[in-house]
Each structure stands twice: as structure tokens, then as C-alpha cells.
Amino acid sequence: MEVFANANNCLDGLPAKIRDYVEEKIKLCQPANFHVCDGSDQENRQLLDAMEAAGVVRRLTKYKNCYIATTDPRDVARVESRTVICTKNMNDIISTPTSGFPVVTDPNLPKNLKQTPLGNWMDTDEMLEILEERFNGCMRGRTMYVIPYMMGPYSSPYSKVAVELSDSPYVVASMRIMTRMSSNVFKEIKTSDGSDIVKCLHSVGVPLPTDKPICPTWPCNPEQTLITHFPDRNEIISFGSNYGGNSLCGKKCLALRIGSTLAKNEGWLAEHMLIMGVTNPEGIKKYFVAAFPSACGKTNLAMLQPVGIPGYKVECIGDDIAWMHFDEEGRLRAINPEYGFFGVAPGTSKSTNPIALDMIHENTIFTNVAETSDGEVYWEGNGENFDGLHEPTILSWKNKRWSVDLGEPAAHPNSRFCTTIKQCSILDPAWNDPQGVPIEGIIFGGRRPAGVPLVYESFDWQHGVFVGASMRSEATAAAEFKGKQIMHDPFAMRPFFGYNFGSYLAHWLSFGKKDGLQLPRIYHVNWFLRDPETNGFLWPGFGENIRVIDWIFRRLTNQASARETPIGLVPDQATSDGIRGGEVNPALLEVSKEFWLNECQAMNKYFEENVNTNLPEDIRTELNNLQKRLLQI
Ligand code: OXD
Ligand code: MN
Q1: Do β-strands 83-87 and 119-123 pair in parallel, antiparallel, or remain unpaired?
Q2: Does ligand 1 come within 6 angstroms of the Cβ of 292?
Q3: Given a cut of 80, is residue 408 above it in pLDDT?
Q4: Full residue range of the structural domain in which residue 418 is found
Q5: Contact call for residues 497 and 118 (beta carbons, < 8 A)
Q6: 288 FRET partner, CA 20 to 30 A, in 29, 41, 77, 440?
Q7: Domain final position from 591, 608, 626
Q8: What is the reported pTM?
Q9: For residue 558, how far is its CA from the centre of ligand 2 (angstroms)?
Q10: Number of domains, the chain
Q11: Ligand 1 within 6 A of CB of 492
Q12: Does the beta carbon of 294 sit less than 6 angstroms from any atom of ligand 1?
């Protein structure tokens, strides 16, 4: 696909360090052509037109400037088993599991890859050698795009400048939505030699011509896929996948994995958290961050439309990632490093997230959703119960005529919309503030069908860090896991830790020991409790989640009492200042001794097996204290 007939081949505007990097990678990857992106409308138009002409995307006739891309069915989610952090010293990144490392049996994976449930590691030099082979000539017949971009607002001391080289025009169009992409970003470099620029190299891994049976509109190389990170070199190298978090290097790779290491070294926090502003009926505003595992409703919460308590207003700053720094007054301030939403489509409807639904009918790239014969998008849970047997007919994400009797979804469960943040109608006025917004509450959460109450408050910072460390949640479709098993997902960061989880905990704990910080209070929520008899949800969720945020808000203003339980402070429905705005099934606030003793056992096993000697003593103490408190009831 020849996209840029008159490509910008001039490297003169790039910092010397990046010019050298681009030249080196051109030599290695041997693209037919290269183009330095400027992020302009004109460039984007040309790219989208060319992709449409080549069948890489289809235009959605019903909307303005919206497109669908459908993938090779083998490339539909993040691949955690092939995502690796590379350093010299393994223990900097992972701990040795007590049961040892699994033997790598996949012949396409490096034998010396060390895989653990908390991330994978390999030696830098060994990995670079393997990547050198994979990237040698990998862009033949394709254009290499040089994408200058920035994570975080312009003029922010907290933003990071980066460049991604990619042979995927889909990646360019998506990065333009998800990041601040412009050659102007180089004015924001913070070092004189440009060593702070994060370098990213991405290839779909299919040089042309090819005799491999490939999907021409979604080239990828699943057998050879590797998503690698080199924190010591400020570098990301991603091969073989064109999908979301694997290929849009600014998101998970930079903002979380490289980001968390930068954060540890520089004294801040890079977290898998939404950022929201909440104004109460009295007009007082507070900002919160919330961490939930992938596909557990962060986007919906970030855009919540309050139901049940009149007078509340929610405004959105981000739906996935927060970079947080303590300012000179000791307040924790958060920026959203991203510039768009890469949201899970299924389940998004007028009733679950009207704000998201309103913002995606212009300038949006959809991936793996279904399309109706009317030129609209369609997915499971979008509020329309089309069966495909009657008009409108439906083209599934597999590009086949779909009907309900096929017994499979029309849209892939991990299908996505990719939309600029500026189209969100409830964008917070401070969304682009270089200094970020002051955070007063940190909310952790997971998808737990039993045992974990609707909401509880931690006793203090250290206990809150323990609550984050012990998070568990049902698996979702955002990665390659199958079924609904309850997985440990500490801080919702399990797939995104850039360094050893034990040191990550120590880093979080360290803030509790510093003087002069106004530490936010820490909460845990669970919208997903089910009635064991009917299996129905016990909590209405969505807009009514404001009733829980209201309780948290009033806790922060000393207007809500709480009942002390072994796991933390829960709303006291025996008083008038518990959860307001409607009925609360008592089962939502129960704390069962038996359930939580089992939970302690599971945590203990998980920590012993996966963190062992790297587990901070304070976390062990918190676990022991929880057990003791439980045994006393
Ligand atoms: C995401 C994820 O895409 O967490 O945000 O998987
Ligand atoms: Mn996410």
C-alpha cells in the first residue's frame, strides 16, 4: 500500500539523537519509503483515504469521518505471555517464583524468557539479538512512519516526549487520536541531548512481497510477536501485532511499563487509573482516581451520569492512565498522559454510558465491531436487540453475515472505539492543565461476584497499599485469558508493571513515611456482587455508582459515619448517613469471616509464590493484622 506519494523524507527537523535513531532503524528494517509525520489534518486525511482505498478501513456512511478496521482473528487483544521487560538484572523486574519458571515450550519464544504471573523478563543483550533478526528487512515493501508524540499536556513538567517508528498506517491514525502527535513535541524535550525521549519501534512483521497466508488488510505475525521494553535504554520494541496496547506504544508500553519505572526513579506514580472530577450538590469539587482491571468499567465510571442523588456532576479527565506527582504543598496531582479513549465497545449503550455513545459518531476509528446494513456500528449490549435475521442485516467483526443463531457475538468482546478526548461532552475544564488536578481519593476495584462488599475505606495509607496489593478480579477479554476465573490483579497493574512488584509496593509505601504529604484516602469498590440464588447483580451500577462516590465524598468531608470491620470501614446503614439515594441490599455490605480468611490464604499463597523475599515487611504485617482482626469476630 503506497500511502505517501510525496512523503516527507526530511529528517532535518528531528533532534540529532532521533535522527541517528531513525537512520539506524531504516538501515535495519529496510522500508520502501519513510515519512516523518506532522500530525496535520491534511496528513491524516491522506492516510485515511489511502487506507480506505486499500481496504484497511471501511468508512461508516452513517457517521462523520468514522471508520471500521477488522483484524486478523489471531490479533485481537494484548498478548501478555509475549510482553517482556528486558534488563541486565532479572530481580529488578521479577521475583523467582517458588515453583520455578515454566519451561518455554513455544518454539517461537526465546528459551531464556522468564515468565511469571507478574510479568516476563529477559536479558537485554539476548533480546536485542533476537529482535535484530526479526527486524532485519521486516518493513520491506512498506512505508516507515516516524511519529513524534507526547504523553501529557504541553508545557507540563510531567509530560514525556517520544517517537514511534511504525510500518502500520492504522497505528499512525490511532496514535494521532490517542496522543499529542506533532513535530512541536520536540520543543518540550527536557534534556539538552534528547536522552529523555522515549524511542519506540513497531512493525507488523510482514515484509512484502510475502508468500505467507496473511490477512492483507491486517498484516500481523502472531507466531513471532514480541512486545519488549528496555527501561535502561528508554526504549520500546514491538513486533508482530497491530492491536491496541501491543502497537500503540504510548499507551501501556510507555505510559505504564516504562512510565512506572521512570516514576519509581523520579519519585512519582504511573498508574492504570481513570481521573474524574466530582462536584457535589453544594458545589464542592473533588478529584478522584480509580484503578480497575481492564474491561471492568473504567470508561463508564469516568463518564458517569449521576442517578439517584440529585445535584451531583461528574467531569472526565481520563479513563485509563494517571501520572501522579506530589506538588510542593504535598498534594497529589494527576495528569492524563493520553489524548483519547481506546474504549471497549461491547456493553456501551445509552443506559450504561450515554456520554461515550454521543462522542463516537465523529472522527472515530472502530476496531472489530460489527456493522449494520444501515452503515451504523453494532455490538452486544449497545441497547438494540438486532438479531440479524430481520432488517437491518449485520456484518460481523469477521466480515461475515451475522445472525443470533450463529451462537457467537457479532462484535469481538474486546472490540474498541478510538476517539479523541476533545469530543467528550463532560470533559473537565482542567483536563489539559499542565500541573494536573489535586487528588483526594484513590479508589481500587474489581469484578468480584461474591464476598467483597460494595465499598470499604482503608484504615490508613499503609493499609490502603495492602488493599491495592490484594486486588483480585474476574478475567476479561482484554488479554488472551479464557473463562471467568478470579485472577490476582494488584493495583490493576498486573499486565503493566515495569519493574519488580515488590519494589513497586515499597515505592507506594514510601509515601506513607514521608513528612508533609496530604495523602489521599484509599477505598475499594465492587459493583459486581451477585445474588447466589438468582445470579443477578445486587447493585444497579452505572449512574447509581454516584451513590457510592457520594458516601466516599461525605467521608472526606466528615459527613458520613462508617462501621469498622476487619477489612476496613464500610457504610453504616443503621445511621442516616450511610449510602443514600435508594435501597441498599444488606448483602452488599456484609463481611464474611470465612470468605475473608480464605481470601487471606489466597493472598498469602500468591505473595509467597510470586513475590516472596521481595515482599515488603509492611505488607506481610498488614496481612497478618487482617487475619488477626478476622479471627477476633
Ligand atoms: C486497555 C486495557 O486497553 O487495559 O486499556 O487492556
Ligand atoms: Mn486499560
Answers
A1: parallel
A2: no
A3: yes
A4: 341-423
A5: yes
A6: 77
A7: 591
A8: 0.97
A9: 32
A10: 3
A11: no
A12: yes
**pLDDT, mean of residues 534-561:** 97
The stretch 242-257 carries a mean pLDDT of 98
Task: State if residue 493 touches ligand 1 by the CB under 6 angstroms criterion.
Answer: no
Q: Is residue 553 part of a domain?
A: yes
CATH number of the domain within which 458 lies: 3.90.228.20
Q: How confident is the model over 257-298, as pLDDT tens digits?
A: 999 999 999 999 999 999 999 999 999 999 999 999 988 899
Q: What is the CATH number of the domain that holds 262?
A: 3.40.449.10
Q: Is the CB of 244 under 6 A from ligand 1?
A: yes
Quick one: 100 and 203 in the same domain? yes
Ligand nearest to the CA of 247: 1
21 C-alpha vs ligand 2 centroid, how far in Å? 29
Establish whether 138 is a catalytic residue. no
Burial 566-601 (b: 16+ CB within 10 A, else e): bbbbbbbeeeeebbbbeebeeebbebeeeebeebbe
Q: How confident is the model at residue 36 (pLDDT cuts 50, 70, 90)?
A: very high
Q: Out of 379, 396, 423, pick the residue that ends a domain.
A: 423
How many other CB atoms sit within 10 Å of the CB of residue 161?
Answer: 23
Pocket test for ligand 1, best of 78, 178, 271, 497 (most atoms within 8 A of CB): 78
Three-class SS of residue 452?
coil
Dihedral, CA of residue 131, residue 91, residue 498 and residue 226, to nearest 10: 20
Q: Is residue 606 part of a domain?
A: no
The pLDDT of residue 475: 83
pLDDT tops 90 at residue 480: no
Average pLDDT over residues 200-228: 96
Report whether pLDDT(126) > 90.
Answer: yes
Residue type present at position 475: A
Distance, in Å, from the CA atom of 629 to the CA atom of 632, rounded to the nearest integer, reads 5
Catalytic entry in 66, 296, 418, 424 = 296
CA–centroid distance, residue 560 to ligand 2 (Å):
32
Comparing CA positions, the residue from 183, 68, 205, 49 lying closest to residue 135 is 205
Considering every ligand atom, which ligand is closest to the CA of 178?
Answer: 1
Could you tell me the distance, in angstroms and rounded to a whole number, from the CA of residue 471 to the centre of ligand 2? 15
State which of 249, 256, 296, 342 you would mutate to test the pocket of ligand 1, scoring each by most atoms of that ligand within 8 A of its C-beta: 342
